[in-house]
From TrEMBL:
It comes from the Bacteria. This is DUF523 domain-containing protein. It comes from Sulfurospirillum cavolei.
Length: 160
C-alpha cells in the first residue's frame, strides 16, 4: 500500500533557498527518519514562484494577500504562483500534511510579520500555508514537530 507523503519547506532540510542564500537546517531524528523512509517532499514556494536566491526579504501586507519586498516591489504574483505550484505538487505526491518554516511570508503558520519590516508580528499565515490549509492539508511549523509526528502516526503511518 502506498504511504502518504509529508510536504516540507526545503530550507528546513538544508537547501540554500532562503532569501539571504542560506538555509534553516534542522538536525533532528524524526526528520532524518522520514527522509530515510522517503516520505518527505521538499519544496520552496518562493523559488517555485520564480524568485531568485538570494532575493530581498519579503513580507505580507497586514490583512491582505499582497506581498512586498524590502525595496518596495510588489511580489504578490510570484508568491501566488509559488503557492499554487506547491499545492499542485502536494496533490500529485499524495501529501496529507506539511511541515513549514515558522514566520515566513510563504510558509509561516499563524504568526508572520506585518509588512512594515520592523520585526512586528501579527496573527496570520503565509500565502502558501493558507492555500494548503484551505485545500485540506494539515500544516505544522517546525516548532510543532511532536504534534506533526503524533498526527502522522494517527494516520496509520508506523515507522518502516
Ligand atoms: Fe524556506 Fe519557505 Fe522561505 Fe522557501 S519560502 S526559504 S521553503 S521558508
Amino acid at each position: 500500500m502506498s504511504r502518504r507523503k509529508i510536504l516540507i519547506s526545503a530550507c528546513l532540510l538544508g537547501e540554500n533557498v532562503k532569501y539571504d542564500g542560506g538555509n534553516n537546517a534542522l538536525h533532528v531524528t524524526i526528520l532524518e527518519r522520514w527522509k530515510d523512509e522517503g516520505v518527505l517532499v521538499p519544496l520552496c514556494p518562493e523559488v517555485l514562484g520564480g524568485l531568485s536566491v538570494p532575493r530581498p526579504a519579503c513580507e505580507v501586507l497586514q490583512g491582505t494577500n499582497r506581498v512586498v519586498n524590502r525595496i518596495g516591489e510588489d511580489v504578490s504574483e510570484a508568491f501566488s504562483k509559488g503557492a499554487k505550484e506547491s499545492l499542485r505538487i502536494a496533490k500529485l505526491e499524495g501529501v496529507c500534511m506539511a511541515i513549514l518554516k515558522a514566520r515566513s511570508p510563504s510558509c509561516g503558520k499563524d504568526i508572520i510579520y506585518d509588512g512594515t519590516f520592523t520585526s512586528t508580528r501579527v496573527n496570520d499565515s503565509g500565502i502558501t500555508c493558507k492555500l494548503l490549509q484551505e485545500s485540506g492539508i494539515v500544516v505544522f511549523s517546525e516548532e510543532e514537530l511532536c504534534l506533526a509526528e503524533a498526527f502522522w502516526h494517527a494516520k496509520g503511518n508506523d515507522p518502516l
